[in-house]
Amino acid sequence: xxxxxxxxxxxxxxxxxxxxxxxxxxxxxxxxxxxxxxxxxxxxxxxxxxxxxxxxxxxxxxxxxxxxxxxxxxxxxxxxxxxxxxxxxxxxxxxxxxxxxxxxxxxxxxxxxxxxxxxxxxxxxxxxxxxxxxxxxxxxxxxxxxxxxxxxxxxxxxxxxxxxxxxxxxxxxxxxxxxxxxxxxxxxxxxxxxxxxxxxxxxxxxxxxxxxxxxxxxxxxxxxxxxxxxxxxxxxxxxxxxxxxxxxxxxxxxxxxxxxxxxxxxxxxxxxxxxxxxxxxxxxxxxxxxxxxxxxxxxxxxxxxxxxxxxxxxxxxxxxxxxxxxxxxxxxxxxxxxxxxxxxxxxxxxxxxxxxxxxxxxxxxxxxxxxxxxxxxxxxxxxxxxxxxxxxxxxxxxxxxxxxxxxxxxxxxxxxxxxxxxxxxxxxxxxxxxxxxxxxxxxxxxxxxxxxxxxxxxxxxxxxxxxxxxxxxxxxxxxxxxxxxxxxxxxxxxxxxxxxxxxxxxxxxxxxxxxxxxxxxxxxxxxxxxxxxxxxxxxxxxxxxxxxxxxxxxxxxxxxxxxxxxxxxxxxxxxxxxxxxxxxxxxxxxxxxxxxxxxxxxxxxxxxxxxxxxxxxxxxxxxxxxxxxxxxxxxxxxxxxxxxxxxxxxxxxxxxxxxxxxxxxxxxxxxxxxxxxxxxxxxxxxxxxxxxxxxxxxxxxxxxxxxxxxxxxxxxxxxxxxxxxxxxxxxxxxxxxxxxxxxxxxxxxxxxxxxxxxxxxxxxxxxxxxxxxxxxxxxxxxxxxxxxxxxxxxxxxxxxxxxxxxxxxxxxxxxxxxxxxxxxxxxxxxxxxxxxxxxxxxxxx
Length: 845
Fold this sequence. Notes:
Largest sheet: 7 strands, mixed
Radius of gyration: 39 Å
CATH superfamily of the largest domain: Phenylalanyl-trna Synthetase, Chain B, domain 3
Distance between the termini: 52 Å
């Protein structure tokens, strides 16, 4: 986001009142801006160049304000003040007008055909009878620079030239000439230079040298002359000194040369609208004519107003408010978008001024309405839809593999996705044309020339950087490689790979082979030809001849393993044999849906859903549930539904974290869709309804939430009177009611019972600096660490060597309250005694 620096006192003077820093920060937030920094010119210079350079700088307070990148009308003090005044209803948005010159022909800019090879477009306008002060002049120059850096893309798309019209005479000619034929005195110079000499001169200029490459290699350079042959400018590099503007300038000729005509029009509109308020006739701009090589004449600036229509319902729905059409029109008018209802339904007509080229869609208008309404004033509501988020299957499989590969004794590495061409080709004994690599068009360094097509070079470079570590080195990485793929829109695709290497005095092929078997066991792929996996001999220049095998799963190749070729090992500056395995992970996902995974049994990431055929009908929902009695009460009553809604306020399911038969049973007990007032119950009911086609596969319930239906009443007549029956049977109905009430109370009490607290036993090794450290004081410091959920245990001193002893101390922690990182940070804070802290043992209780 561009940052605009304005002097606080000038800003408050223009706004007509004084704000505190907090008040102005709040005003900026309401207007969609951000007050980024409060500083001064002296403080900035002192910070960037040192105190000695800042001795004579100004102490005036500067506000650094972050402005949205597409709000070009807020890049200067004038536009910022105008926008805030309109937003606070202290000023009506001005109306900008294009006028003809008084008693004469408009200024004319003639474009020749030679410019087509460099910058073919140009626009122009005149600010007549303008009055500059030092502050206005500084703002005028600063706006040009802000536009150059923003929409003009560092002058590559548009370059702005401003000239004192009284020092030159029209018509003006915009043409292109050979560099040696252009000669003039540039801005702030005392003598004339040719264009070739200027290019050499400005190569060391910290400001202008960045723009030289735009035209440096062109056969001709663009240049603008007046009718007397005086050079106005050589865009996009420098203006001529003859037509420079000053505080005494009254008439300003503005020209913009460009490779993009649309952006040139926007830039010209911004320049003239922001500073036309200082003209004798405020907010009027004198037109200029531009004549193109084909004879076509255009009049600029356009200052075009356009009208758009949208509905109040659209704004209310998108923002999340309920405002009338008149109120929405008022909100938009506060954002300099003059609006009024059309009278046709809730339709609103919005007039977009030339200062708002950022408004290109109805959503942009809606966003301004939201800003004017105030984001903090929008009522927070519960979404009407309920969705269940799941981890991306490929990432989930990757995370599970990472845990088990680490448990197998391998250490994970993470390398850059970019590498050199040599890494993936020459060093591996391959040709770069065979790698299907994606090349970086303009790489900054030789280390980042292509996107990697294999993970192996990264791991080998990691081993080379850690050669002094104890052997063996066992590393793995699961990350993406990038391959060319013409079937994709971007011509490339990512592929998730798994790579592991074993580096030791012996090749250790059996270790890598064992890791492959373990990986296949985790993926639930059997060692068999056909549907399972198998390996067979293969030739690969990266591997030692006769020591390479290709991995097949389901008859398709997914990777290779083997002993690396000695030449490959030596090219990575390694001296010992190395075995490697690399294979594609994505084939193990298939084209199936995701299920929950656990580590309890060998798992497979996916399984196939048995979707019903079109001819099969879905199981019909029960028209009347067998019983509506649950532990929460009667589901046909308001009280029962309210109790269940409260139970589901912080739960997604009746028990656990997945749908089960308990959810299906309670769902069946609800006779009709619950009212919208019970939002939690309604959300749960809609979600469980989606499981109707697969209810049979839901796991069984662990608890009973639905009470069994009462037995049907007997139709016994007078002849069936039991003279010997107990009087208690007559109270069976009352007893059943009491029993149900007690069960409901018990279930409610049980649901509030606190969960078991997970605890762990940790044994810490606390190491001192040397043998002179006071170990008693060290232990005292460690035990002084107090946290909720932490209980210190026994401690002892263990010899390390050379008379140094370490403190070994145990503790019991509650997992949710105390973590090992927190403990280590607290203990290592005693820097005088503690050198480091390691976890020697960690056991769950």
